[in-house]
Amino acid sequence: MNNVNRFDVITIFPEYLAPLNLSLIGKAQAAGLISIGIHDLRDQTSDVHGSVDDTPYGGGAGMVMSPEPWGSAIDAVAELVPNEVHELIVLTPAGQKLTQELAIELTKSKHLIFACGRYEGIDVRVSDFYSTQKNFKVREISIGDYVLGGGEVATLVIMEAIIRLLPGVIGNPASLDEESHTLTSDDGALVEYPNYTKPKEWRGLSVPDVLLSGNHGEIAKWRLEQARIRTKNRPN
Length: 236
Ligand code: ADE
Description:
alpha/beta
């Protein structure tokens, strides 16, 4: 399978992406499993103020990000990975909702480019233009029905959801098979069953006997049942 190994993020706040150097993703970079470039959109501006936005045509509140610096920045990062289809991810609350299924799908593109909009978003012609380019695939993605200050945090969320799925990133890949939204039953995706570790008793609460029984069949049955109950009782 073709797995993603190059990520480029375009933002006006490069420092926002500093957590990509920590933990799992930091280790994946150090091990050479992935490489990540963070790019300041303002490097693509020509005026002394480094303007990246302007008032919306048609009027209304807020500012819209101008297409010119975005076009220059996207063209420049595409050149870093020649002869590939670039998947351009535009973060917006209006986009396709992130799910585990979508994260899995995104692992299959070689090169992901994240466009972090701020203000009222990016002039839509940026998405429209790259949608017509045969070496680009454009996706608008939302991480949920709420409005953030910009796409940077959404990028961190999406990148973590993708990168932890890549071969070699998680020490024990079996742990990927039994987690929320990966577990399935006839009724569809399930959230994960409850987990326990030592001690057997804690503040008057005990570990269910079945988990101490050593009977793997019974344990699997109990876990599936618990996952079903949790899924059914989840508030949304
Ligand atoms: N930008 C602002 N809000 C967002 C959201 N919910 N998802 C993705 N990008 C965003």
